[in-house]
Amino acid sequence: MREAIAAFNKAIAYDQKNVEAYVERALVYDETGKTKMAERDFTKAILLDKKNPLPYFKRGLLNF
């Protein structure tokens, strides 16, 4: 899991507007019990692309 987070961190460092990297990193955070960090990444993805339904959906599942 640590390697996955490192890879997503690198992707975000290269492109801070990479919505998919935030969503995928949030999913890893959720799997490792870091719910607050997951929610933060989903929210960041939403702020970057308010018309993309995926971060809303995934954040909803997280809160469910």
Structure description:
This protein has 64 residues and is mainly alpha-helical. The chain contains 4 helices and no strands. Helix 2 packs parallel to helix 4 and helix 3 packs antiparallel against helix 4. The mean pLDDT is 97.
Short structural summary:
The protein has 64 residues and is mainly α. The chain has helices at 2-14, 19-31, 35-48, 53-63. Helix 1 packs antiparallel against helix 2 and helix 3 packs antiparallel against helix 4.
Write the layout of secondary structure elements.
Layout: H1 2-14, H2 19-31, H3 35-48, H4 53-63
Q: Which band does the percent of strand residues land in?
A: under 5%
Basic shape: flat
The run of helices and strands is HHHH
Fraction in helix = over 70%
Describe the structure using short key phrases.
about 60 residues, mainly alpha, 4 helices, flat
